[in-house]
Fold these 3 entries.
Entry 1:
Amino acid sequence: MIEFVLDSRSKVNTYMQLVQQVKQALRVGLLAPGDQLPKVRDVAQSLAINPNTVLKAYRELEIEGLVGGRPGVGTFVQRTLAGASLPNQAELRDDLVAWLHRAQAAGLTAEDVVALVETTLRATLTDDTQKEPA
């Protein structure tokens, strides 16, 4: 079951934060087709937000065909975003956890880590797109 967390410093709308978290959970296999999303009332209560915000997020996911509502029952995952790389993610996640512990020991804050990852990711992807196919 997914547990939503809101970043109050984020400039991303609250409902989009929920949408993004569901998509991330689908991408890494934490949610799979048939899984039920938390009930709107429970999410609204735990995050102290308006239930309409949760409904908006679930509606957005429904429009994208990722979830479907069953009246009186709840909202269920209909398809996954996990790709063929999913079986390899566990080992990579373990490596990432070890790297994060090293970064923390080196004195990096969470914001430092995000900045390092995002700048490296952008530079790496830019380098990869500039390479000519052999």
Entry 2:
Amino acid sequence: MVTTFGKGLAFFLLGILTAAQGFSPEFSEAGQAAEISVPEILSKMENTYRTLSAYTADFTQWTTSVASSGATTKAHGVFYYQKPYRMRWEYEAPDRQIFVAFKDTAWLYIPEDRQISLLEMKELLQSPVMRTFFEGVVQLKENFQATLDAASASEETAVLRLTPKQEDPNVRDLRVWVDTTAYTITEIEAHDALGNINRIQFHNQKYVPNLPKELFAFNPDETVVVLDPSGRKLHPEEIGAIKRRLGD
């Protein structure tokens, strides 16, 4: 699961960036996308997400692994994002797992095992994709080369192909589907250097002023085992210190 997040994860948070500079205007040959350039799409997305403070979405994820002879697994759940620096992926099936990133700390909770694994946030943020999306207001122009995938566009959807400017072993390139009415992201597909594919579709996106703080709280009870990134079991005092540090 951690691998899933490390590779495809990034997905999420949208926000988009300043657009104009660095992108070459390109035009598709089909549908509404034919009338919209890449800088215009990014600018409109930026305007959309800049005004949002929090949102939720149901998601469906497909992961195709080269190591599994190209087998594809499917999962679904709910995604939560709150500015600044809070996100939660709550997987409901096939296994219930919860990934939370809050400020400088990230953890994966597996309810069935009553176990939390702390993750190295610095390592996660070394990925330009992860960093871009977690920061909420995405500086795509600085991190990616963007072009329009005209062949995949439709009247309602523009498709951007994003290539990291900085080498990222987890992401060779991304394709991002953008609703050209609301200028929100509806789907993301990531390809890594090994040929693995991670695709996520978002449904029922809802924008709200704020989400409950409890969604991003680090508050394990005494029955939950907490492991640091090296796999060492933390003492109650150490767990308490993390709670205090992350507490509002």
Entry 3:
Amino acid sequence: MRTRFLEAELKDTIFHRLDVRTKMLMLLCVAVLGMALEQWKALAVVYLAVLALAVVARLSADKWKALLILSFLTLWGMMWVQAIFYNAYPRTPLLYLLPPMVISPSTPLLGGLWEGIAFYYEGFTYGMAQSLRMIAPMTLGLVIFWTEDPVRILTGLNKLKLPYAVCFMVMTCLRFIPITFAEAKVTLDSQRLRKYKPFEAKGVILGYGIYKTTVRVLVPLLANCVRKAANMAKSADSRAFRASDQRTELHEVKIKAGDKMAVLLFVGVLIVILACKLLLYLSEADRFTSDLFVPIYWFTHRFL
């Protein structure tokens, strides 16, 4: 189970045949889109497009399970926290956990809760947008790692003129992501053996269960990460890493027609969205406004 989870799945799919540089550019476009888009519906479309790439890559059931669990915990945790602690106005309560006026405003320490504790719609959508900004590039990064030979990733980054030491660090970070997931699974299994229920329905719904589980998993995870990083540094030193900058590549990477089409699609969508956002910004700042761009202003303000 652990070996299958860590190893890349080298198959003959459209996504596997793309050059690693193309995949990196796609990841960069998704990350920039996450920062540029504001509406949660647009961010959800980006996330669904990333999931479509995962479907094309034909990931195994184990990797889909890990991907969905991680996405759900991130999504639900941020939505829950933002929905409860949202303090801007206007705000629309969807559900009251503590009805208003139950506590008097004059009550010491607790008087600030006279408005009650509610689950606000605006906080819910804000938390969803924030979580989608995180899980979209994270999901694509995992899909790239799971579908690409680590040697090709290192070679592709080096072809992008990145220093070899930086390529090695990026490669190491990507390598640590599935290792961290595997360590988290081991930690959760050990806690289950001690009768702890990390995903009890009541705790997940109310939020405190996610917090307790996160704290209990993070401490051993960080300890293991520090230990593995120290071992890796010793291993790199023992093999005279960076002894020479001139290296011979075993696997040559080449840009093909499919790569050019993918680059045109992602970069084209990114440029169009950034241009729409720029036009709307110039209009709202009274720098430049034209009647020709009114439909673009409306579409960008409402959907982007």
